[in-house]
Amino acid sequence: MEVQVAPLRAWDDFFPGSDRFALPDLKDISKWNNRVVSNLLYYQTNYLMVAAALVSIVGFLSPLNMLIGGTVVVLVFLGFVWMSHNKDILRKMKKQYPTTFVVAIMLSSYFLISYLGDVMVFMFGITLPLLLMFVHASLRLRNIQNKLQNKMEGIGLKKTPMGIILDALEQQEDSINKLADYISKVKE
How does it sit in the bilayer (predicted)? Predict the structure, then answer.
């Protein structure tokens, strides 16, 4: 299936008034994780635009360090994903504690970048966009259109860049399995 870019959501939908934002239920981690994954999929193009703006500003101010920082983060991410596919212990950790897995990637990247170059480029050019995405995805309540788009992504009707990244982090398997069970029940 070919990869499709998700549409840019209206900015008043992406960042409306405070009535569409709420703190997640910190006691129910799976529900919070579901909200984050759903919002990451639904608003992925908006997140990309915000991240591109921040990366462009930092990249303009320090292009070589931004290039080194971006390369290090991508290589560390790919290394962690590769290791988690080859080591069961890492695979289980990635599936059970996705936030810990991402934090491990970011900390590893931080130490490598601090060894190679400018830490502030890492903080503002790479970590800040990721932090903003996570905070927005955690606080933004989902709507009907968001849920429908995520179901289409989950059953394979659409494949987007964020869906591919979340698959690499194994954050969509449970949703797909639940949806497949639901579809099989409906068919019966």
Answer: Multi-pass membrane protein
Of 170, 6, 161, nearest to 91 by C-alpha is 170
Confidence of residue 74 (pLDDT cuts 50, 70, 90): confident
- Distance separating alpha carbons of residues 10 and 16, to the nearest angstrom: 10
Burial class for 175, CB neighbours closer than 10 Å (0-12, 13-18, 19+): buried
Domain of 125 in residue numbering reads as 29-142
Show Cβ contacts of residue 32 under 8 Å, excluding neighbours closer than 6 positions. Answer: 24, 25, 26, 138
Q: Which of 28, 16, 15, 7 minimizes the C-alpha distance to 133?
A: 15
Domain total in the chain: 1
Distance from C-alpha of 65 to C-alpha of 112, rounded to nearest angstrom? 12
Assigned domain for 128 exists? yes
Angle, to 10 degrees, between the axis of helix 98-116 and the axis of helix 63-86? 140
Query: Would you say residue 168 lies in a domain?
Result: no
Q: What is the mean pLDDT of residues 38-61?
A: 86
Distance between CA 62 and CA 122 in Å, rounded?
Answer: 11
pLDDT tens sequence across 124-169:
777 788 888 888 888 888 767 666 666 665 555 457 777 777 776 6
